[in-house]
Each structure stands twice: as C-alpha cells, then as structure tokens.
C-alpha cells in the first residue's frame, strides 16, 4: 500500500519539488558567487569584519525560500484532495484513516526534509570555502529557523486545506501567519541560537495538526 500512496503523492508534488530544489541551488550558487566577487574586490578581513561587527547577512536572499518551498509543496499535495472531496476516496481505502493521512503527510515531510538537507549541506559546505568555521556556524544557526518555518508552512497548509469549513480555514490562516512570524523576528546572524530547540518542538507539534482537520471532515462538518 505504501508504494501506491507514495506514487500518488509523487505525481502531485514530484515536479514542483525538483523545480524548487533547482531554484534553491541556484540561489545558493548566486550567494556564493557574489561573496567570491566581493572578496576579490574588497579586502577579505574588512568583508569578514562587516559580517562579524556590522551584522551584515550575506545570505539574506535565501530567507523566505524554505517557507515558500514548504507552502507550495503543501498546496500542490493537498489542494487536489479537496477538489470534489477526493480525500473521501483515500479515506475509504481498507486501512485506518489516520494512518493514511499520516502516510500522505509523512511522504510530503520526507521529501521536504530531503530538499532542506541538501540545501543546508550545500550552503554550509560552500560557505566554508570563503569563511572561518565561526562565521559558518552562525550562518547555520540563522538559516535553521527558516527551514523550520518551511516545515511549519507545510503542516499549516495541510491543516488549513483539509479543514472542511471556510470560516475556520480563515481563522487558521490568520493564526498560522502570526505563528510563522516567530521564525523571522531577528535579522541578526546567530541570534536565534537560544530559540532553536523551542522552535523545533513547536514545529514538530504542528506535524499532527492535519489529523484534527481529518477528524472534523470525517464527522461530516460542512
């Protein structure tokens, strides 16, 4: 059953996942080519001092990419399920309803984690070419909450889209947007270090939210 579910989900999100991965890699390449250009045109110590003392963030263009990636994959995966209430077909398969929704969300989450792991590794490794480990560690601490926001956006998208009543969808959207701002409160590199674990816990807690929408859908809420 799992291979069949994976194939069905991959048809919906495969192309957009590959496209967003390519866009992410191009943005990372653009960031580091710009860094290389700036280091050649300026003194490297002055450039590093701008990062350390002036809080210059050389990777700010990457900021909303994980959020957009999670949101678009969530929309691509779950909107087709609500067209003509096709989710009912999935819920009538001979397996537990919560299990099938968790598998659908798990497949989307797994693909997102693969994309984010690749982008994080490329960003981290490429940054080590131009910067000392201390600066790269601050870069990693800065971009981790952005990746968490991408996962949160994906979970919120499934939660909102699977909700059967529009007025609750709107309420969830407003609450979700307010929650996502928590990942973007500071522009100072490395400032999110004390908040990494709480943000990760909040993101993991959101992963179960789609089950509540399915519960309401199954109850016949319209």
For the terminal residues, how far apart are their CA atoms? 29 Å
Residues in helices, as a percent range: over 70%
Q: What quaternary form is this?
A: single chain
Total strands: the figure is: 0
Q: Low-confidence stretches at least 5 residues in length (pLDDT < 50)? A: none
Shape label? elongated
Beta fraction: under 5%
Helix-strand blueprint:
Layout: H1 2-41, H2 44-52, H3 65-82, H4 87-91, H5 97-130, H6 133-162, H7 166-180, H8 196-206, H9 209-218
Helix pairs in contact: 1-3, 1-5, 3-6, 5-6, 5-9, 6-7, 6-8, 6-9
Keywords: Membrane, Transmembrane, Transmembrane helix
Transmembrane segments: 16-36, 56-79, 100-123, 143-162, 169-184, 196-215
Organism: Pseudobacter ginsenosidimutans
Features:
222 residues, 9 helices, mainly alpha, elongated
């Amino acid at each position: 059953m799992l291979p069949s579910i994976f194939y069905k989900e991959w048809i919906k999100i495969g192309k957009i996942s590959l496209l967003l991965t390519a866009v992410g890699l191009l943005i990372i390449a653009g960031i580091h080519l710009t860094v290389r250009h700036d280091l050649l045109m300026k003194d490297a110590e002055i450039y590093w001092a701008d990062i350390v003392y002036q809080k210059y963030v050389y990777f700010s263009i990457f900021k909303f990419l994980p959020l957009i990636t999670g949101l678009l994959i969530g929309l691509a995966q779950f909107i087709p399920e609500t067209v003509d209430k096709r989710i009912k077909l999935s819920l009538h398969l001979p397996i537990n309803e919560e299990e099938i929704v968790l598998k659908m969300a798990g497949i989307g989450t797994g693909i997102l984690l693969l994309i984010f792991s690749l982008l994080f590794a490329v960003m981290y490794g490429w940054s080590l070419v131009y910067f000392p480990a201390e600066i790269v560690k601050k870069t990693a601490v800065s971009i981790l909450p952005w990746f968490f926001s991408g996962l949160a956006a994906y979970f919120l998208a499934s939660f909102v889209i699977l909700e059967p009543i529009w007025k609750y969808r709107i309420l969830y959207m407003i609450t979700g947007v307010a929650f996502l701002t928590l990942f973007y409160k500071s522009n100072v590199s490395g400032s999110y270090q004390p908040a990494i674990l709480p943000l990760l816990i909040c993101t993991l807690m959101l992963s179960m939210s789609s089950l509540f929408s399915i519960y309401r859908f199954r109850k016949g809420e319209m």
